[in-house]
Amino acid sequence: MRFMTPLNFCWLPIFAIILQSALPAAAIPRKDLDTYFSWAASHANRFGDEMCTTETIAILVKLAFERQGRRGLIIDVGANLGNVAEHFLKVFSLPTFMANAGQPVAGTLDLCQDMNSRLTYYGFEPHHLLFPHLKEKLQPYSTHHQIRVLPVAVSNFSGTAQLYHGCGDVSFQGASLVKTEHLDRRGKCRYKVTVVTLDQKFYHNKVVRQSGIFLLKIDAEQNDALVLEGGWRLLRNRMVKFLIFETWLKTAHGISFQGMVAKLHSIRYVCFLVTKVALVPLSSSWWQPQYKALGVSNVLCGQSGDRDLFDAYIAYGTNNFTLFYALSNLLGDLDFVRTSLGRS
Fold it and tell me: How buried is 266 (Cβ within 10 angstroms: 0-12 exposed, 13-18 middle, 19+ buried)?
């Protein structure tokens, strides 16, 4: 099973209880789980076209967005032409089956709940040729939602920097603050852009202070680790609920994939490699040395102990391996947090 329908999403907590009671008496050995997840990661890396895109995540976390009353910002760093942004806006604007959850009315479901609610979206795209297309694409949504697109780059410092792009690349996609061997080969394919940090832009934002950042998506062409550094106060204070970023095999800034995951885990964020086969756990002891060789990959992170992260993992689709992992690890984290809160 790949995805649950919106109606089934509402029953995830009940499914969790049923699934937990159905857990095999004989636990799956850890070495077998490691073998399965290693295979899933290598399979996805070998067949790169099967790597799931960030659009998939919007579907997984939609229920959580409904639960918190559609509050919280959606931030898109590296919005490009706006294709992902448009998908986010469409998915999060869809009618939901949550209206009468727990309060059935004559067996009917209200399909129009919150259709008039406004979403708050921030998109960052520094490339002067891509930005007009992004703005134009999202213009139809601005009549109903709060759409803000900014022609600036995001990193771990504020000021100005050179944005590098491929010489002769008519698409102008893939521009980056990080100069690589295939960018700016002629020494003229660059120009100066304004740079901000996420902390600078959002840490004192009134909406963020009240409702947080629901989803932070980063696609900064090898600059993702530096974007995370620039938003560390937000992350450390758990003001970001879900995070999506991209990892590369080689980067010019020297921050490794493992280092990024470990640093996030130090502030209780749990990360997963997004593949079609499974959400592969990466944090803490679940990291495996062979993951260092992964190519361009999408990573999903959420707060440890968050019920919505558990639900999203289960909703992604399960087999015996992923189910056992979720029930013995993610659900265990949830119980730990509840116990800790009860004692405090």
Answer: exposed
Residue type at 44? A
Q: What predicted TM-score, i.e. pTM, was given to this entire model?
A: 0.82
pLDDT tens profile 196-238: 999 999 999 998 999 999 999 999 888 899 999 999 999 999 9
* Domain residue limits at 314: 6-343
**What are 237-259's pLDDT values in tens digits?**
999 999 999 887 767 677 889 99
CA distance linking residue 235 with residue 267, whole number of Å: 8
Q: Residue 57: inside a domain, yes or no?
A: yes
Which two structure tokens, joined as six digits, stand for 137?
A: 């694409």
Q: Count the neighbouring beta carbons within 10 Å of the beta carbon of residue 73.
A: 23
Measured distance CA(79)–CA(218) in Å, rounded: 8
- Domain-embedded: residue 39: yes
Task: Concatenate the DSSP letters of all residues of 26-93 into one string.
Answer: SPPPHHHHHHHHHHHHHHHHHSGGGSPPHHHHHHHTHHHHHHTTT-SEEEEES-TTSHHHHHHHHHHH
Domain count for the chain, please give it: 1
d(CA 104, CA 109): 7
Find the farthest-apart pair of alpha carbons in the chain and give their distance in angstroms, rounded. 69
Q: Please say whether the dihedral angle defined by the alpha carbons of residues 90, 314, 224 and 52, taken in this order, is positive or negative.
A: negative
Helix 307-315 × helix 331-343 angle, to 10°: 170
Residue 5's pLDDT is 36
